[in-house]
Amino acid sequence: MPLHLKPLDMAAELEGYESVLIVSCPICPPVSLATDTGSPLIEFFKNGIKTGAYEDHLRDMREALEQRGVRTGVFTSYLPCTAMCLWTAGQRKRLLKRANGYQAAVVMGCESARYTVEETLKETDCAVLLAMQLVGITNAKLKFKLPLTVELGDLSRIDANEQREEGPAPAASR
Ligand code: SF4
User: Fold this and answer.
1) 83-95, pLDDT tens digit by residue?
2) DSSP state at residue 162
3) pLDDT tens-digit profile, the chain (174 residues)
4) How many domains does the chain have?
5) Spacing, Cα 84 to ligand 1 middle (Å)
6) Is 88 helix (H, G, I), strand (E, B) or coil?
7) Nearest 5 degrees, angle CA 110-CA 116-CA 122?
8) Which residues on adjacent β-strands are paired with residue 4?
9) Using one digit for the tens of pLDDT, what is the confidence trace for 153-173?
10) Closest ligand 1 atom number to CA of residue 29
11) Which of 50, 17, 16, 46 is nearest to 33 (CA)?
């Protein structure tokens, strides 16, 4: 159930920063870019386990910043847990170390990803900015193709506000 996230134009918000670390959640953002562009989630022989459309977006972000003289880096972490909302203490410690020397951390992910980064960097001077906006929830059928390609078929976008949360069953029916 990946969130569908829309990349935001951060040019104005990043004005004045000389170094920017892009902190990327490897789950919902790649799925979002793959579905937005109608491209495969995984083409192993082309991009390994990374998503081509998302890697293109990260590269464009970095190029735009570097053309303005900004030093950039990218941090992500797959193990032991990919989802930034569940990163372990060790993964957060690695982020803290990696962010040293950067003036801003730009979060590619949701508000929970931003929270992870804000909590991790709260004792530093590094500004934390969110570079994606939640627009819904993705539903799709994973399709496996040769050679080692994964596509997202039968795509639906579900408005998060239309979802009804199941509460606990009434005590009498337990
Ligand atoms: S942190 Fe947000 S973007 Fe990343 S996996 Fe969790 S819900 Fe998705």
Assistant:
1) 999 999 999 999 9
2) G
3) 699 999 999 999 999 999 999 999 999 999 999 999 999 998 888 888 899 999 999 999 999 999 999 999 999 999 999 999 999 999 999 999 999 999 999 999 999 999 999 999 999 999 999 999 999 999 888 899 888 989 998 888 888 666 544 445 555 444
4) 1
5) 6
6) coil
7) 130
8) 136
9) 888 888 866 654 444 555 544
10) 3
11) 50
Q: How far apart are CA 17 and CA 11, in angstroms?
A: 10
Q: Say if 170 falls within a structural domain.
A: no
> Among residues 42, 44, 22, 21, which one has the least CA distance to residue 31?
42
CATH of the domain at 42: 3.40.50
Question: Does residue 168 lie within any of the structural domains?
Answer: no
Q: Where are the alpha helices (DSSP H) in 24-149?
A: 28-37, 44-47, 52-66, 89-98, 111-120
Q: What's the CA-to-centroid distance between 18 and ligand 1, angstroms?
A: 27
Give a yes or no: residue 141 inside a domain: yes
Cβ distance 141 to 56 under 8 Å? no
CA 15/CA 98 separation, integer angstroms: 22
Residue nearest to atom 5 of ligand 1 (CA): 83
Task: Please give all residues whose beta carbon lies within 6 A of any atom in ligand 1, as ranges.
Answer: 2-3, 25, 27-28, 83-85, 109-110, 112-113
